[in-house]
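Researcher: Let's do a round of design. I'm pasting the structure tokens now; please hold your answer until I've finished.
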């Protein structure tokens, strides 16, 4: 996680907050979130990891900038499953949901 680029948030604090969000899911989905996160971090080691928890989804986006709209890959989790979406990395995805985004749900 590139916490150094986020003013006022240490890497350990950011990781702790992310883990608290992941812990809200059932054990099977926690395992999926962690596995996909590990895979994406390995594939995009220098990407900024942008995390947000909104009404419907917990999302981890991977972007070359601090802007979520620039995300290359996103992991989206909600109560009924975990998915991985991409607009620029088609090898990561299997079926198309729209012309610009590919989505794979596990």
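Researcher: That's everything. Go ahead.
Model: Designed sequence:
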């Amino acid at each position: 996680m590139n916490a150094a680029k986020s003013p006022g948030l240490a890497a350990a604090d950011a990781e702790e907050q992310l883990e608290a969000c992941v812990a809200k899911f059932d054990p099977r989905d926690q395992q999926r979130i962690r596995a996909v996160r590990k895979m994406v971090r390995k594939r995009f080691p220098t990407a900024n990891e942008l995390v947000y928890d909104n009404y419907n989804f917990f999302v981890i986006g991977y972007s070359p900038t601090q802007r979520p709209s620039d995300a290359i890959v996103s992991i989206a989790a909600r109560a009924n499953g975990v998915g991985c979406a991409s607009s620029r990395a088609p090898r990561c995805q299997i079926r198309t949901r729209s012309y610009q985004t590919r989505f794979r749900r596990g």
